[in-house]
Write a structure and sequence with these properties.
single chain; alpha+beta; two-stranded antiparallel sheet; globular
């Protein structure tokens, strides 16, 4: 009996001391595609050059737009930034845009908590996985705006990639995002004027990246936003 107890005790000790048990760090999401394209958004000078090269045209086919044309919600199965890393697109946005992020132990894709310094309003918005949030994921150039500017002619695969492209997306205040809707910069600008320059850079960068058109009033508004850059 003593010998058996000793063997049992030894076995437990070996198990408890085995390396890599319990203390092993949780895996992190991996992808060959970063959460942002290098060099995005373009500098003010680059944005002005790209804006000058964009085709100017009025939006068309707006009456044909449906959200479903861009896929059914978030998808990781694209070659856009952040794609094919095993994480939901929205979680990629939260991990990238929030500060003081705490990730899930079992699923490190999931953001459990963090703080957003909202680019549109300047407000500090806390985030908790288990509570209702004021944070929403915004398509800077909204899907409807992209549709009118040329996305109506794309393949379904290209529209799906656009809808999940992290260069196109920002974590923002929900109410402000609703107010923005699919308006172009001639009809809506961030209430936080200090963000105007970056907003113009992002909007222009997205339009240039996807070869989308700009309307005459939209181009003028973007020129004003970029002229304010310091």
């Amino acid at each position: 009996m003593i010998r058996r107890a000793g063997v049992l005790l030894l076995a437990l000790t070996v198990v408890a001391c085995a390396p890599g048990r319990a203390e092993e760090p949780a895996p992190t999401p991996s992808s060959a595609l970063p959460l942002v394209t290098p060099g995005f958004p373009p500098t003010p000078a680059e944005a002005r050059t790209r804006l000058a090269a964009l085709k100017v045209a009025r939006g068309v086919n707006w009456q044909m737009y449906e959200r479903a044309e861009f896929g059914d919600g978030w998808s990781d199965e694209t070659d856009a930034p952040g794609g094919r890393n095993g994480c939901d697109t929205r979680d990629d946005v939260l991990r990238r845009d929030l500060d003081d992020v705490r990730l899930g132990d079992r699923n490190p894709c999931v953001v459990l908590s963090g703080v957003l310094h909202d680019p549109y309003t300047g407000e500090e918005l806390p985030y908790s996985y288990r509570r209702a949030s004021r944070i929403q994921t915004d398509h800077v150039v909204a899907l409807g705006a992209a549709w009118r500017a040329g996305a109506w002619a794309w393949t379904p695969e290209r529209r799906l990639a656009y809808a999940n492209d992290l260069d196109v997306l920002l974590a923002t205040d929900k109410a402000t995002n609703y107010e923005k809707s699919s308006r172009t910069p001639d009809k809506w600008r961030p209430p936080r004027t200090a963000y105007g320059c970056e907003y113009g850079r992002r909007w222009t960068g997205i339009k240039a990246k996807y070869g989308l058109t700009v309307s005459p009033p939209e181009k003028k508004a973007l020129e004003e936003l970029l002229a304010a850059c310091r």
